[in-house]
Write a structure and sequence with these properties.
The protein is an all-alpha fold. The protein has helices spanning about 25-55, 60-90, 100-115, 120-155, 160-190, 195-220, 240-250, 250-280, 285-290, 295-300, 305-335, 340-365, 365-375, 380-410, 420-450, 455-470.
Length: about 475
Amino acid sequence: MSKNLKDPANWVKTSSQYGYYKLEKREILGYSSVDFAMNLVFQCIALYISYFYTDIFGLKASHVAMLFAVSRLWDAINDPMMGTICERLNPKKGKYWIYIMYGAIPFGVVAVLTYTTPGFAYNMKLVWAAITYNLLNMLYTFIIQPYISAASLMTNDQDERTKLQSTRMMFAQSGGVLCAIMLPNLSGFFTRYMTLAQGYMVTTVIMAVIMVTILLWASHQIVERVPAPPIDPNNKANIKDVFTLLFTVGPVFLMFVLFLGVYTLSQVQSTMGAYYIKYYAGREDMLSWFSMMMMLPSVFGVPCVPFLTKKIKKKGTVMLGLALAAAGSLLLYLMPPSAIAGMMASRGVTAFGYGILMGILWSIITDPVEYADLKTGKRYTAIVMTLIGLGIKFAMIIGGSLPTAVLSASGYVANEAQTESTLAAIRNLTSLLPLAVVVVTMVIFGAFYHLNEEKVVEIQKQIAERNAARKSA
């Protein structure tokens, strides 16, 4: 009979230092399964939604670009609101994990609606896309912000956190691989019995059911061992705290920049992948394989992170991942239209670097939380995660709206032979734009981020001493 993970009698300390606990295998599996499940649906949006809107649903590229841009502006309001709600509430069942349970079914339902293509007039299609796409993003925020914040309450042990986040990201990338394969191939299979648009919807129904089932189970495996700080009724979190942390706490701002850069890389290549392989390479039959090559090698990059952090530390691991992503983007630019094998290999190099980044980013993310706690006296984990979430959402503006707008300006017309200028735009957007983003990110992060492992341990000690002094006062 398995032991009750939520019973404090079963918790194992890894150190005498405050909050240092060992994470059980079932707990790591449950926590990681959340991201696997979320990526079954979220990667459907990241990899294919732009292509779906223009080439299947029939929306103009310029309108899709506008839709993405307006959605990200709403995120700039919605995400901080969600972060402050999380910090202002302390539900009895648990501070963060219950949001996963409550958000699972609504997220699955709206995912299906997003890939549903009602036979409306064009303007009503735009309205439908805007409502469903924005609802999906809001529900994603409702789940993902508390989810990533929960890790800070599971243990303070940096090694355990690294193991947890590395496993989590390996699962997340695996979910992305499954999505990359299933959505185009299963949708194509269903065209024997229905239209391609209907095939996309049915495939999304299948993936949504799997996702919801996993989320409902996995949410109950998360154990919040480290008590959340009590809420001061006279000093509750508010929107101002979001921007105070962003602009006055250096490591928090640099983490925002890092997530912005890494996810812009991913979003650009996800947005442009379908156009690149269909029009520039002329191999639409390779779409699922090309999409998969952005995900599959990353699964092998993530498990390397614990080894790399021991050898070259967290910052060195980040820089290595960025360097590999840049090299792969440059190689992709050098490939002629006929070099399918070279394209796949280039994509694989970028994906391997991206996998390393996914493993290390979510391990290093809690370090600025500790730093902000020491400097401000407030442990606003969800608000820091909100800023990270904003970095990801702003990446979707650059990676989703900008390429789609440039495509429209270059004369792109869906499902027709493209002009030389459009083909050049597709090639440059898929390779040179992510290359530039990664290089800028490397320079900023490499020059200014100085929060190493030794500093974090010292910060944790100072916080524990400060909190103990407060209790005895």
